[in-house]
Design goal:
single chain, 189 residues, mainly beta, Metallo-beta-lactamase, Chain A, 7-stranded mixed beta sheet, 2 helices, 14 strands, globular
Length: 189
């Protein structure tokens, strides 16, 4: 059964000194070591130190998943030099580019991808079968408390449809810029 660890809880702090950090997660599933959204953080140690505490070195990481291609979710991917990179349209390793749909793609036996456009047209959600239920690592939500309407969505109705789709299966949401939360009736649709 896969283990899910949130390495860093992201945030968006508006104001004169805008600060943005993405939520970064680690999944251990058998021989697979998966990092999701290794983006902007105050210091790379915010990713590497929790990994070290889990007994994982950057060279051990087998896969990196990008929920989408904004820098706050991708900028630290080079920390994992031997990992396959997964996005909505392909898997990349060294100089190999392998086209494939994300929908249903198995990164490992307990980790699969869904195409979930909403924040961008190229969004994917990573589903993890944990001992506590199905976790969804996704940018369909920034955080548990909002924003209810993503200010960058290309289509509010598409966002709502994809949120409903994920809520039908997930018992835990790991959002793009906040702490994991259990969805409920007040979760933004």
């Amino acid at each position: 059964m896969p283990e899910l660890h949130v390495l860093f809880n992201g945030y968006v702090r508006d104001g004169d000194d805008l600060r943005v950090a993405g939520t970064v997660s680690f999944i251990r599933d058998g021989e697979s070591r998966v990092i999701v959204d290794p983006g902007m953080v105050p210091d790379r140690a915010e990713i590497l130190d929790p990994m070290r505490e889990l007994g994982v070195r950057p060279d051990d990481v087998t896969d990196v998943v990008f929920s989408h291609h904004h820098p706050d979710h991708t900028v630290n991917a080079a920390l994992f030099p031997h990992a396959r990179i997964h996005d909505v349209m392909a898997t990349y390793l060294a100089d190999r580019w392998t086209d494939r749909p994300a929908e249903g793609f198995e990164v490992s036996p307990g980790v699969r991808l869904l195409e979930t456009p909403g924040h961008t047209r190229e969004d994917i959600t990573t589903l993890v079968d944990t001992a506590d239920g199905l976790a969804a690592l996704t940018h369909l939500w920034w955080a548990a408390d909002g924003p209810a309407d993503d200010p960058y969505t290309f289509d509010r109705e598409v966002l709502r449809t994809q949120r409903e789709r994920v809520l039908e299966v997930a018992s835990l949401i790991v959002p793009g810029h906040g702490e994991a939360f259990e969805p409920g009736p007040d979760t933004a649709r």
